[in-house]
Amino acid sequence: MPFRADGEGYLGEATQERLDVFLDNAREINLDAAVAIHTFAPGHTPNEALAELIAPYLGADSTPRLLGCVTVNPLLDHAPELDEMHRAAGEWDFRAVKLMAAGHRYYIDDPMVDPFMAAARELNLVATIHSGGDYAHAARIVRLAERHPDVPIVMDHMGFPDGVDEAIEGAARLPSIHLMTTILRFFADDPDGAAPPQVRDAVERAGAEKVVFGSNQAEYRPAQVAAAIERLDLGAETEALIFGENLKRVYGL
């Protein structure tokens, strides 16, 4: 069976109740792995609480295996935020770093982000980056990627709502950029009937190996997003890449 994984999911608060729902959603479609993120806080995100909660599920023998993601805020004092990235990669065994420029309100291509990308490269962390709006426009993420070509980037929401073309063009041109299918919120009028044509467009223009499945749960269950992609009839080989094999490669699993 092909590897299946969800590249973006949120627990909200780090509670066992939220984690139980998260795991149930993952098991509903037999996910082998899922990236777990604490919903960002306006200042410092309580990543340590997330680490303590998900610690029993980080091993490869867990079903699903959780991949921890540390959220950082470049607007804060860099030293403690960077120290937490080092704790996340070493002590906590996290696999990714989240940059939430739209929420924290900074421009994602600002030079102050560079030390965090350099740390991601040093620590072998995937950078999962929210896209959309001026602060985190896809064109800005592409500029950041150009400065840090050795850092694997997963662009959440694949540039929606205002930068899909720039996102796809960037993914087609730069080996480091992958596009996340966390886009069902943009089809909220009919989430259970949507078949997002932009995913097909990304496959055709950037390549099936550049699209990574993500649900953005708890906003939508992974099963809902998977069904939307399946309605595109992309074929078994392409679906296998999107639904997990690409993330397995990006994360080095």
- CATH architecture, please? Alpha-Beta Barrel
Helix fraction, binned, reads: 40-55%
Give the strand order of the largest sheet, numbering strands 1, 2, ... along the chain. 1-2-3-4-5-6-7-8
CATH fold node name? TIM Barrel
SSE run: EHEHEHEHHEHEHEHEHH
CATH homologous superfamily identity: Metal-dependent hydrolases
How many strands, which pairing sense, and closed or not: the largest β-sheet? 8 strands, parallel
Instruction: State the secondary-structure class.
Output: alpha/beta
Unreliable sequence segments: none
Kindly state the mean pLDDT as a whole number? 97
**Percentage of residues in strands:** 15-25%
Backbone CA Rg:
16 Å
Number of strands: 8
Kindly provide the name of the CATH class. Answer: Alpha Beta
Give the CA-CA distance, first to last residue. 16 Å
How many separate structural domains? 1
Tally the helices: what do you get? 10
Overall morphology: globular
For the structure shown, list the relevant keywords.
single chain; 253 residues; TIM Barrel; 8-stranded parallel beta sheet; 10 helices; 15% strand
Concise description?
This protein is of the alpha/beta class. It is 40% helix and 15% strand. α6 packs parallel to α7 and α7 (164-173) runs parallel beside α8 (197-206).
Written description of the protein model:
By secondary structure, this protein is of the alpha/beta class. It has one domain (5-250): TIM Barrel (Alpha-Beta Barrel). The chain has helices spanning 16-28, 47-54, 78-90, 101-104, 114-123, 138-147, 164-173, 197-206, 222-230, 236-250; strands at residues 5-10, 33-37, 65-72, 96-99, 126-130, 153-156, 177-180, 211-212. Strands 1-2-3-4-5-6-7-8 form an 8-stranded parallel β-sheet. Helix 8 (197-206) links the parallel strand 7 and strand 8 (211-212). The model has no long low-confidence stretch (mean pLDDT 97).
